[in-house]
From TrEMBL:
Gene3D superfamilies per UniProt: Aspartate Aminotransferase, domain 1, Type I PLP-dependent aspartate aminotransferase-like (Major domain)
Family the entry assigns: Belongs to the class-V pyridoxal-phosphate-dependent aminotransferase family.
Domain Aminotransferase class V: 57-357
Compositionally biased tracts (Polar residues): 1-19
Cofactor(s) demanded: pyridoxal 5'-phosphate
Protein name per UniProt: Alanine-glyoxylate aminotransferase apoenzyme
Molecular function as annotated in GO: alanine-glyoxylate transaminase activity; L-serine-pyruvate transaminase activity
Chain spans, region Disordered: 1-41
Amino acid sequence: MTESVVLSMSETPELSSQGPAAPAVSELNPPDRTLMGPGPSDVHPRVLRAMSTPLVGHLDPTFIEVMNEVQELLRYTFRTDNRWTIPVSGTGSASMEAAIGNVVEPGDTMLVPTNGYFGGRMASMARRAGGEVVEVDAPWGEPLDPADVERAFERHDPDVFGFVHAETSTGVLQPEVPTLTDIAHEHGAYVIADCVTSLGGVEMRVDEWDIDVAYSGPQKCLSCPPGASPLTLNDRTMEKVLSREEEPRSWYLDLSLLEGYWGEERAYHHTAPITNVYAIREALRLVAEEGIEDRWARHREVAGDLKAGLRALGLEMNAPDDYWLPSLNAVRVPDGVDDGAVIEYLLAEYDLEIASGLGDLAGDIWRIGCMGYSARPKNVEFLLAALEEALSAQGYEG
């Protein structure tokens, strides 16, 4: 007969764990920053309100009407009549990868610039798409010279040419865009323009300048949270995409599939980020209400005041006036000043964000945004006063 054993509670073996205990997480309460870095910029209150409105389904008739409106507003902002104009579900890097990953086919050659961080990202994406990358050289902090672009075409005969209209890492605006696109088209190449830091803040005319593909992000001059990112392609380029022999390597960003959702059919492809689409719709409504050319002028005026104030502090701009980028002001760090200490001081004392340099300019510049809802005189005055104090704390006298 088996003897039964009774254990007291104190003697009971520990039960095996069923998983971690619920974490104690407090209510979200982020600081109220003034965002004057390279992005994101301050979000307009109307955009935030739009994000708090009720969800509907991603194929709901109401949402389909929202999709139509967003596409029309994007065409207005890009200055294009392109039918293939959509907000890609994802951050600006998603619209960038959608552009390059669909247009560059295995075996294609893509010409990319070397004059900034985001030309390097173009190169990386082109290689991942199976393309061969060749480069047109220019120093960091300078635009591409059309003569160098012409020589690169004659030497390499690329299928695709990519350039950065507004280089966020250097504060340089690429001039002579129509000249660059003319060179590319004379050689039968497709042109992809990075407009992440220019769309909605700096003059950009997709059709007039004969740009085949342009992509952007919503969190810069559009002052919208990231999540739905602008992309436009002309018919010529979309024909190339739809006639590919090999499918793009990304299913999610395959434009031949996205066409079914954003085209006339409105067939299911993925669940769109509905709230982000609401947000970009409202952000683009603000662009249309202000008027695109008036918006460009506001950015030039407010950023011009910022540039004048920085020079009054004895600071030097990284880009000469001929290719100064109003939406992203790259400022040289004076000798003897710790760039990171200034950034930390502004954040700690004033809840004010600016950023340091990237790549070849790391430690040499500050990047100060003047974009969208952040491009307001009161923000410029606030930043200049706080920056003067931060510099003074390090013994800088100007």
